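ingest -> validate -> predict -> emit
validate: passed (alphabet ok, no gaps, 451 aa)
predict: started
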Amino acid sequence: MVDRNDARFATEQYLRHIMLDYRQMAEFVKEPFVVAKADGIRFWDVYGKEYLDGLAGIFTVNVGYNNPRVLQAVTEQLRTLPFNPPMHGTNARAVELAALLAEIAPGDLNTARLVDSGSEANEAAFKLARQYHRQTGNPGKFKILSRYLSYHGATAATMSAGGVGYRKTLYEPAAIGHLHTYPPYCYRCPYEKTYPACDVFCARTLRQTIEWEDPRSIAAIIVEPISNTGGIITPPSEYLPTLRQLCDEFNILLIFDEVITGFGRTGALFAANTFGVTPDILCCGKGMSSGYAPLAAAMISDKVAQTFWGAPGTEFAHGHTYAGNPVSCAAGLASIREIVERRLPENAQRVGAHLVTKLEALRPLEIAGDIRGKGLMIGVELVEDPPTKRPFPPETQLGLRIGKQALRNGLLLRFAPHWIAFGPPLIVTEADLDQMVAILEQSIREVLREL
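emit:
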């Protein structure tokens, strides 16, 4: 049962004391959304209203809420050792987690730098890349190449690597040495080409970018295998292998930001497995602990890690108070074992295909332009005229309207002005998805009537 006394925390009297992510609080207090409890794929607000979680929090709660195995692991660890600062050494759960990550990660990603969030994992990856090149005789390699429409975090460096202007213009100038290129956005190709006739021009043109910038200055390329903030932009199968080849040719480290795609989301343990490409550094988080405690990691290849092992002064000069926290690591161990032993990536692949079929059935509503993604990371680009791909006028904000209406109707989705997306817990069933899509359809019809 929800404690009805918590309803007072959804009032302006209390909400004035908190600042939320990307929220104008003066607007939020008019229609507050304050959660009280959760179980499985459902949660309840402070008024007792039930919701289906079509987003796993934010692509995070992969094993679902109230998982007994994770709860037990966290509870036992709290009683045994709740905290251990990494500057003094480490703890058994952190070492155990690093070993498990090395076992399940693709290729030779055998070393883990444990941190607390995806932003920190990506920030660590940038520093690792720059220090690696310094320690291998290439101190001029410092630039980080990323893509427009990407998101890599909210710290100064990761924000600078991100490719969405409104998220960073308030704080610029921030970190230097960040370059951007166009994403593999086939539905609206920035190069005005058509796949597959283009022969993945978006990847091949990177050669020119690298050469014009001077390959002796570029330390790393970071990409999300599937881009969330861009609207679940999913690359052609040849794209990531082409990036891998270019990085090898020009001695550039390839970083995968798998904070969202990791731990089963795309139908495999990692999107690196899905696309058959192993990066030099793989950053992961979110589903790693299924949100039961803050946890993320940068998984490092043997080639990179060995340069930090040995001579004094080559150690990684980086640290956080809560990095490798034993409670977080216990949550991560339990969550990962649940994902692997219950074969949740396979479930994501199977029911994800069902979700796509159900979404395709909504095309008669004539607003679905592109339906894309992998596994249980599926997006729908919304357009006014599907045959011509003509978008809705910016002021329509259709995705925001649909997302807000769906929430009123009891379904949490990811939404932006021109797209919506699903990313439910990996334990979701086809029947659950049927119910979610039914609420989505109802919400779309209600919004279209308003328009």
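The mean pLDDT is 97.
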